[in-house]
Amino acid sequence: MVAGGGPAAHRFADAMHARGLGGWHVTVLTEEAHLPYDRVALSKALTDSDVDLTLGSASMWDHAALNLVTGERVVSIDAAGKTVTTAAGTVYPYDELVVATGSDAARLPIPGAELTHVYRTLEDVWSINTAIADLTAKLGRQVNAVTIGGGLLGLESAAGTGQLGATPIVINGSPWLMNTQLDEGAGQALGRLIEAKGFTVHGGVFPSEVLSDDDGHVTGVLMADGRIIDADIVIVAIGVKPRDELFRAAEGETQQFRLGQRGGVVISDDCSTEVPGIWAIGEVANFAGMCLGLVAPANTMAEIVADRLHGGDATFPGFDTATKLKLSGVDVASFGDAFARTDRALEIVYADPARGVYQKIVTTDDAKTLLGGIFVGDAAPYTSLRPMLGRELAAEPGAYLTAAGGGNAGDEVLESQLPDDATLCSCNNVTAGTIRDAIGGCGACDGNAPVQELGELKGCTRAGTSCGSCVPMLKKLLESELTKSGVEVSKALCEHIGLSRQELFETIRVLELTSFEEIMAKHGSGAGCDICKPTIANILASQNSAYVLDAGRGTLQDTNDRALANMQKDGTYSVVPRIAGGEITPKKLGVIAAVAEQYGLYTKITGGQRIDMFGARLEQLPEIWKVLVDAGFESGQAYGKSLRTVKSCVGSTWCRFGVQDSVAMAIALELRYRGLRGPHKLKMGVSGCARECAEARGKDVGVIATADGWNLYVGGNGGATPAHAQLLAKDLDDETLIKYIDRYFMYYIRTADRLQRTARWQEELDGGIKHVEDVVVHDTLGIAADLEAAMAKHVDTYVDEWADTLKDPERLRRFRSFVNAPDQLDDSITFVPDERGQMRPATAEEKALAARQPVLIGATIPVRATPTELPDENEA
To answer: Are the C-beta atoms of residues 376 and 189 closer than 8 Å to each other?
Structure first.
């Protein structure tokens, strides 16, 4: 039996499952209604109540020997009878009991505490999200959101309230932020950076009362020094306390379990309690006098108990307190003896208060052995240094202080052979040796095949699958090991082009190459392939707005680009006119309706606020587009690696909650970036307030209105691996917003890999969103003017592709069913009416039936079919 259903419980069940269970049956009792979810990512749920934080694969619980029971809170343990009882009165027997009840949010012992919110569960963050939205609507202004607590959870909470459109205010009893992980210098640097992001920080004074009006609505926080801080909502994130009530003796009973001085049940190094058959893992477990709410030790404890139940002898090595995170775009990291408490420890420090950068490395007195470190503002050294904790450094300590001009000492670490027992991924306790073994030949793969891709490596070893901070080092180690084994780590586009896409883009741009033949003659070999041909066509289209099918480029394009339409499964095409910002007049709606009726097309409103018409034959496309272009429509480019849509809510024009005109901004952005081609499709969204009805943070570029301007988010994607966009800049005016988007798009187009979405591109950039901010906002590379000029050229030379096509008889020759018989139609295209009053492609069985009984099926639609020519359901 497992009491508790948080991350530690999930990891234990997963560890048992990975070991084949071996005759064990595992039942997990969780009081929450959800599958176990990632509490570390609660900030995502704070700003997006629809995000899915479920841990692992839900299918794991389908195993016959794994049973997850939700809504069942264990309230007592009968150690003698080996049973647990839940709040519902259900009694569950056990052979072994694993307690993973975690912790509760600590509460403030001050008047008015009952009016505050806490930050611990999904319900907690959903409640905060709803409260801020309701208060914003009620008050008609920006909400003052006060977070009490300047630690990890407090700053995460405050950042989330800022993203929801509130004014983030932090109250911290300590003189500096994150005082548990950071020393004063680092804490002060973090404070400056956080305040520069729009936070207000009150440090060194404790709150004494939460104030409210006669109706019980929060109005402020009274501080111990007499000040009153205005507040509309108060969130308490001052820490957690172990949920150890199961181990506490009831009145009149003898205490069976030993509890820590500050709570938590005491465990030995095998994670067992003093009572045989009862184990404790995660935040409820007290080891060496400590209970810690970190992922890595909880995972390690879960693995140890699973190992012990399968006859192993694993032991808990102690807590790894390493922390690396990004708070509102600010990198923060600490590990090891960050406060230099070791006798005669040396502290090598670089501090730049003006830039908000603080880097410190702690070593032994001979400056050789690494003991710990702290990094704020620039945490680049953390990745290389963290695995070297307790070992001799490969270079003198100053070489790792990148902010002070230190070199790339991380590469030297790899060259000096990172020891096999060095922990590379602390979240999942994966060593460098395990990584090397997988690269040499993964036992989980068929034939013990060597691993040569980062994704495969993560899947085989679990490294990099939790917090992700070790991924850069993981990638370096993979490339280093492949190089040592004689495997060339190639960045070539394909077998015909030895350059990467980025290198090829720059080469074409600088040398002003304009044709496939010219490019292949200088930088390629052979006739090309389905990788390099469309990539070159895309790069040429990105650098100039010439007609994409002219000058021999038509043969390079993918099927959709060649037809200027999306091919569907039955060989017909869809027609998608641009509807900028989702705004359309009734007259234009009538044109679309007339076209759809005239050609018997299936119609659907898309997720991007456009109307898609399906079922057009190739030879019908010019006829359809002639009608649409004459009515003022242009291509929506649903077929290209280009800007698709700019989704918008109705904004301040009509909505009572809107604070900016989101429709006008969406239309302006769509008309500016229409036709812009890149490595992958691009989507945008504009929301008129923090309620985020346009789902802007799910787009490559998202714009959300504030009372002071626009917040700009970048790198959001849907698809198989969705990602939320990250905040790039706040409260921008219209001109600055467009300038930053110009730079962002052009930088992405120039540097991303083939078919790489913006989210994956940002993840793989060294420095991530911070690097993007440096380039786009601060122009650290000095290329902003060049990027803006490139975008201006695109805007000035844009021409609608379908309007261009209709002007040229030679271009129209492409749109024929058969080249040798231009007047013959493809009679294999067959439709049948669906159950909702429109038509759909016929199935193979329906086509066969139509061939035998065409009168009964009546499925083939003639060119220029009208609805009256479609049989109804009874006739079919």
So the answer is: yes
